[in-house]
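General statements about sequence and structure are easier to judge against a single worked case. Part of our work consisted of pairing the sequence of a single chain with a tokenised description of its backbone. The amino acid sequence and the backbone structure tokens for this protein are reproduced below.

***
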Amino acid sequence: MIDIGTGASIDKNDVAAVEGAIRQAKTKKVNKEKIDLAFVFHGPDRASSAIIKNTSALLPNVPVIGGTASGFFAHQSHSKRGVVIMLITFPEGVFLTTGDVEGISAMGALAAGEQLGDKLLSGFKNVPRSLALLLFDRLTQDNADFIVGLQEKLGTSFPCVGASISNPEDSGRSDLLYNKKLLRDACAGILFGGKISFGLGLRHGWKPLGKPHVISSVSGNIIHKIDNEPAVRLYEEYLAYDFPRIRKELKNLSVLYPIGIKIAGQSEYLLRSIQAINSDGSLVCRGNIPAGSTTRLMISTKETCLEATRAAVDEAKANLGAQALKFHREKTSKLVIVFDSFPRAASLGKDILTELKIIADAFEPGTGIIGVNSFGELAPLSTQSYHGQTYFQNQMVSVLIIEG
């Protein structure tokens, strides 16, 4: 069974906070000495250098992955400050490797993805591979090329799940933590294999507004024209705002009214937040746009977001059930990893605790649950026509269950 212990601390002293969180996590584990993996997330109130220095000193030779997050949670406790640490020991027959790549922009996203793929595959000999879990400190317009490069090594339909954990408006204070290093413009990943099962569910809770429109001109993550008109007209038409007001209120509008991209065979729209509006009315999106797409403005409520959380949990459990019996273990336990978009969390407000309760209540007491508020989520599309193709998505809640 997966042996998990989680600890958290808001002690103002970084050394004491790390020590306290690790001590608390170890008290909840059966095997306090053997640790295969540590997740470490901390708020922007902490110095990343102090967190990783003390973590690596207290957990020598343990693979560490995590970073600075605007919000993080364990079980039903949500925080924007302090540190949370989860210590994990996997059962015999489960294998994992970790790897990192830094300087993605300078190297080129395609080459960086290939390099990470090579690192993750190193040491995987004659063992079936199951899943890649990836953390990015930020998204770039070339993120699609990164995934292409990675899947060139792992397999074109290999499941990759993850998130960008840095606030793009405050990236100067955000780092990835990987082993003893702090990374920027980077990705750190874990490749799982062997006797392990997983289930993934993802939803967002946004519903389409009005009639469909055709994206008639797009390049990468920039929508130039919709229905052969400057793309910003979509917002001008529905909101009755002029161009200066839309630009001025873009931050809120992007959260409240993202655009939805219809993917054939996919039940959920692919969401895209608007990062900027160019002077020609083109929309700069957080993530690439498939060419020739149909789009609509989207809207949500707290109720639809919470509905989406329930659906994501149910989907993850159903997908897990489809493969969980193949190893015929008498006893199993679960690790639950949640990437919950920061805009969703902001719109939920205090109801974020209701969301965490929905997730926790869906599993047996004592199940290890950890998550972060993210700024772009990574997951494969479920539709068969895309053959497991992985996309960055916006404003989603992604629930990953790992069972062993």
Notes: The radius of gyration is 21 Å. DSSP finds eleven helices and 26 strands in the chain.
